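Format notes (please read before filing issues)

Several people have asked whether sequences and structure tokens are stored in separate files. They are not. Every record keeps both together, in the order shown below: the sequence lines, then the token lines. Line labels are part of the format and must not be stripped during preprocessing.
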Amino acid sequence: MKRVLLLGAGLVTRPLVQYLLEQPDIEMTIATRTVSKAEKLLEGLSRGKALQLLVDDETALSRLVAEHDLSISLLPYTYHPLVAKLCIQHHKQMVTTSYVSEKMKALDGPAKEAGILILNETGLDPGIDHMSAMRVIHDVQNKGGQVVSFSSYCGGLPAPEDNTNPWGYKFSWSPRGVVMAGRNPGRFLRNGEVVEIPGPELFAHYETATVPGLGEFEGYTNRDCLGYIELYGLQGARNMFRGTLRYPGWCDTWKALSDIGYLDDTPRDDLGGMRFADLMRQLAGAGVDADPKRAAAGKLGLDEASEPMQRWEWLGLFSDEPLPEAQSVMDVLVARLDAQLTYAPGERDMIALHHAFEAEFPEHREKITSTLVDFGIPNGDSAMARTVSLPAAIATKLVLDGEIRLTGVHIPVLPELYNPILNELDRLGITCKECAERVK
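Then the structure lines:
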């Protein structure tokens, strides 16, 4: 029997747990701070157990890692290097869905010496985005061509029929993660020139992105994507862009939130007893008797009837309701969004991932697309949970079965990684559809 340690029991974990415990030769321990969450994940499943773990208890964590054949870390990314070091110490395999940090990269040599694989970025974005892109890029290269332009957009959104609030968004993963991502700077390559977008200006730079079968969205840059030029083997490409998809109106609304100061996570001790209207007056630099909506609109140079102001009003940012318990202005926003932008029973979320390539061959050029659209199951698993956790679950099984024998720190950009994972995802109904056409 193969033993898997799952660290974390968050929103996206259920499909992973179900997939692995459906295998007849796998046992699982779910270790998390809140045992009740783990116990709920294991309802109706055998060969699984739940226990409490405070991840800062390194002695307990080390013992658990040593007792299992592979550890899946779905903890906050800052803990992954600690888990990886313990896996190296005990010669155990590891899988995560998070981006590779510099601390994690530094463990490549020690992991190889220990003879173990530390496989990162095996979720959706990052994860399926890498795998589906590399399948196309390698196919072009194997046919003697070269990809000269690459752009990619990904978004987790309400399904069109359940897009029922003015924000065009509902949470299928960490609300704080969504808000924090709104402060990231971006860097990409456009027509051979490097473009840099500072964090505060992230939402001021967006463009229309069309997804086949779904229509038009707003797309804005996602972090620094220049490193993917070398990673994907696209040296000489004129364009390299990775972006986030949202329904129209999102970027103007969030640019206004950033400008007014709602993305500030500086600790404050004066928020207790305040109302939303009080905070808005303060952020707008207005007096205690000022109309908060008018003050905010004036501060930002917006019309009171503008879409951002309407969305803020719907959310209650101008109301006399008391603020939630919070340590910062950002915490106030996270709590309010989490309370209001929720899925009702039976509603579906949607994942949209769309790549666009331009490829040059000796005698012709091609435009190629790869598109994944996946919908959540009403009253069941969300599309976000399926597309984030199933790649990690599949990779775990492949490693345990000895079908993946790599060592060191990796992400799934090699054929021996992405081909079996994508093939199994396809069997599970998560399919990237590719289309190519010749152009003059």
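For reference, the curators noted about this record: The chain has 16 helices and 16 strands. The domain at 128-253+344-383+434-439 is CATH 3.30.360.10 (Dihydrodipicolinate Reductase; domain 2).
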